[in-house]
Amino acid sequence: MNANTSSFPMIAWTVFLIIVVIGVLNLFLVHPVPAMGYLLLSLIYFPPTNGYLHRRLGFTFPVAVKVILFVIIMMFTLGVSDLGDMIDKL
Questions:
Q1: CB 41 within 8 A of CB 73
Q2: More confident residue, 7 or 21
Q3: φ, ψ dihedrals at 30, nearest 5°
Q4: In Å, how far are 15, 20, 28, 47 from 8, measured between CA atoms?
Q5: How many alpha carbons lie under 13 Å from residue 37 in its C-beta half-sphere?
Q6: Where are the alpha helices (DSSP H) in the chain?
Q7: pLDDT for the residue 80
Q8: 27: Cβ–Cβ under 8 A, 6 or more apart, which residues?
Q9: pLDDT digit string (tens) for 8-61?
């Protein structure tokens, strides 16, 4: 088994958990609306969702789209959102 292909699920789970944590922090510290957005976006990285989409629809999100979306999510969270402002004040 190639090391690169076996590390993709672990990376996907890690990114999924990071975005879920951001969503939960937004839920308690900022407002429920952006929290629901983050939690819905986290489903893109959830490996069982990827398997379900592949089985049912024959469609999966390409890795490049996931990487670009993660970078955009992190830039938005740390640069524009109220949660980023709260982190800066600490």
A1: yes
A2: 21
A3: -115, -80
A4: 11, 18, 30, 9
A5: 10
A6: 3-29, 32-42, 47-57, 63-79, 82-89
A7: 73
A8: 35
A9: 788 889 999 999 999 998 898 888 898 999 999 999 999 888 888 889 988 888
